Amino acid sequence: MVTHGTSYKLLRKLELLGEPSAILHRDDNLALIRNNLRRHISEAYKRNQNQYNLRARPISFEIGQEVYRRNFAQSSAEKAFNAKLSPLFIKSKIKEKLGQNYYILEDSDGKTVGTFHAKDIRP
Fold first, then answer.
1. Angle (nearest 5°) at CA 44 between 101 and 53
2. Tens digit of each residue's pLDDT, the chain (123 residues)
3. Which residue in 22, 29, 69, 111 has its CB near the most CB atoms, within 10 A?
4. Using H for helix, E for strand and C for coil, what is the string for 19-79?
């Protein structure tokens, strides 16, 4: 039983490790390392993907649907406005869908408010 890393030096001198004695060409050795690295990266990707997908919920909104958009208010001393006292979400309506996650929203008057990501919109 090996209990410390310095024991390997002695075991190698006594030829008790049984390490393979085949000498590989540098290109072959690098190819083995690359294959091993690809396998480890693929396993890590799958593990992280499974962990992420446990909590990620795909969400989609329809055009004309009433939703609540996040209010990105900024505090202002000159206007005597404190953002932490303003509402967190404001009622809006989906005007148009851009790609998978972005939506153009309009307020209750029909005026375009801007483009928002799905994470900033609540049904």
1. 35
2. 778 888 888 888 887 777 666 788 899 989 999 999 999 999 999 999 999 889 878 889 999 999 999 999 999 999 999 999 999 999 999 999 999 999 999 999 999 999 999 999 999
3. 69
4. CCCCCCCHHHHHHHHHHHHHHHHHHHHHHHHHHHHHHCCCCCCCCCCEEEEECCCCCECCC
